[in-house]
Each structure stands twice: as structure tokens, then as C-alpha cells.
């Protein structure tokens, strides 16, 4: 088995929620799962397995960015038998009507990364998309619950956190992209390769153009909406 996750066979469920932050993985496991057991502390990238409403669920941190997320996604799918992975993370809004604390569900993920260009040898501009069943379930759940406003649309997975220009984000916004994050395109691509289901649900932690940010003390309470939608969607 891998030396990045380091779990034993059978310790990881077929359904995995994947936050970037390992401490958020710990919080999700302790807050939402029954009988959660930590199966990995390798590189402090925590992983837990427990049950939610009687269903076995794992929570696995992925780190920041597509290179890190790709390692954990690949190993979950190729070595541990995961069949469903839902990224639950944060994103920056680039639309006026998508506000801090809102939730975004990603239909597809544009990207400025060269990972897929290299994967397809420059011969194909691959469009990574979510699993439709998960997407529909999450959107239906979001439409019939109280909580943060939810937007469904395209997101942008960027390789750059501190960039020198916002021009690319402005152009993406003109073409309807809702928000920017750093992992979804890799997740969707690898899920397609391994014939698994994948979805990305993000809480808007900041607005890139308005320089607004969610205070740190509010993040856990606000992120609960996103996690509840994700857990509901994987049970449908």
C-alpha cells in the first residue's frame, strides 16, 4: 500500500469526503461521524473512518493544490477501493452574486494547470466534470433546506494562490465561472480515469474582487452547511 496514506486494507470506506485541510478532516470526523477511528497520521494528513446514519464514511485530508490532491485521490481510488469522493473545501468568489458564506457546487472545473495538457500530450483540452448523480442529489438537497445560499455552476481550479494579476479571473467571470479553488479539476479527471464518482462542494471563504474574507472563528460553523449537503448527497 501507499506511503502517503499508510492505511491498512479495509480501513478506508468506499465513500470518502476529502477536505484540503487535515484539521478540517479531524473536525468533520469528530462532528459528524459516529465511532470515528483515525487510520492515518502520515505527514499529519489525517484520515478517519466512521459511520453517518449507519453508512460507513471516511474523511481524508488532501493538502492544498492539484499535485497534492492528485496523490491522495489516486491512492484512494487505485489502492484502497474508494468509489465516491466528494471534495469539501473553500473557494474564492469571482461573481457579484456569489457571496462570502455561500456554497458552490461545481458542475465542471476549468483549469490553468498543465496537468491535463501533459496527460493528453497536448492533443486534447479535456473538460473535467462532476458525477451527474452526485451533482443532482446535492443540488436537490440544497434547494430543499435552510442554510447558506447555494450556487451550481462551473468553477476554476488554479495552480496559483498568490498571482500577479487578476486578469484571468476577470475573464473567467465573464464566461460564467463562479469561483476559484485549487483541486477539483484533478479530482474529476482521476475519478473519470478510475470510473468513480466525484463532486466538489465549496464554501466561499473570500471574495477575490471585493477583498472580503470569512473570519476564522466563523469557518467551522459556516462549513457545516457544505458538509451536510455532501453527506446527504452520498447517501442518495
TrEMBL record:
Pfam name, any one: PNP_UDP_1
Cellular component GO terms, alphabetical: cytosol
This protein's UniProt keywords: Glycosyltransferase, Transferase
Catalytic activities: uridine + phosphate = alpha-D-ribose 1-phosphate + uracil
Nucleoside phosphorylase domain boundaries: 16-224
Entry annotated with the keyword Transferase: yes
EC number assigned by the record: 2.4.2.3
Any GO BP: purine nucleoside catabolic process
Main enzyme class: transferase
Taxonomic superkingdom: Bacteria
GO molecular function: purine-nucleoside phosphorylase activity; uridine phosphorylase activity
InterPro entries: DeoD-type, Nucleoside_phosphorylase_CS, Nucleoside_phosphorylase_d, Nucleoside_phosphorylase_sf
Family to which the UniProt record says this protein belongs: Belongs to the PNP/UDP phosphorylase family.
Protein name (database record): Uridine phosphorylase
Species assigned in the record: Phytomonospora endophytica
Organism placement in taxonomy: Bacteria, Bacillati, Actinomycetota, Actinomycetes, Micromonosporales
Amino acid at each position: 500500500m501507499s506511503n502517503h496514506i499508510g492505511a491498512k486494507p479495509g480501513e478506508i470506506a468506499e465513500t470518502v469526503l476529502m477536505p484540503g485541510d487535515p484539521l478540517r478532516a479531524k473536525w468533520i470526523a469528530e462532528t459528524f461521524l459516529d465511532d470515528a477511528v483515525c487510520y492515518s497520521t502520515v505527514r499529519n494528513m489525517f484520515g478517519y473512518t466512521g459511520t453517518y446514519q449507519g453508512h460507513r464514511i471516511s474523511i481524508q485530508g488532501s493538502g492544498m493544490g492539484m499535485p497534492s490532491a492528485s496523490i491522495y485521490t489516486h491512492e484512494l481510488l487505485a489502492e484502497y477501493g474508494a468509489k465516491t469522493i466528494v471534495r469539501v473545501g473553500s473557494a474564492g468568489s469571482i461573481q457579484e452574486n456569489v457571496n462570502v458564506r455561500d456554497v458552490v457546487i461545481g458542475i465542471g472545473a476549468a483549469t490553468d494547470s498543465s496537468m491535463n495538457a501533459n496527460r493528453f500530450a497536448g492533443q486534447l483540452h479535456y473538460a473535467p466534470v462532476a458525477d451527474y448523480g452526485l451533482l443532482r442529489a446535492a443540488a436537490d438537497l440544497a434547494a430543499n433546506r435552510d442554510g447558506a445560499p447555494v450556487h451550481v455552476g462551473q468553477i476554476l481550479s488554479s495552480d496559483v494562490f498568490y498571482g500577479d494579476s487578476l486578469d484571468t479571473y476577470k475573464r473567467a467571470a465573464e464566461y460564467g465561472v463562479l469561483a476559484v479553488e485549487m483541486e477539483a479539476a484533478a479530482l474529476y479527471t482521476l475519478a473519470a480515469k478510475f470510473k468513480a464518482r466525484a463532486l466538489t462542494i465549496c464554501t466561499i471563504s473570500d471574495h477575490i474582487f471585493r477583498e472580503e474574507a470569512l473570519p476564522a472563528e466563523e469557518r467551522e460553523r459556516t462549513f457545516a452547511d457544505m458538509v451536510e449537503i455532501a453527506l446527504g448527497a452520498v447517501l442518495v
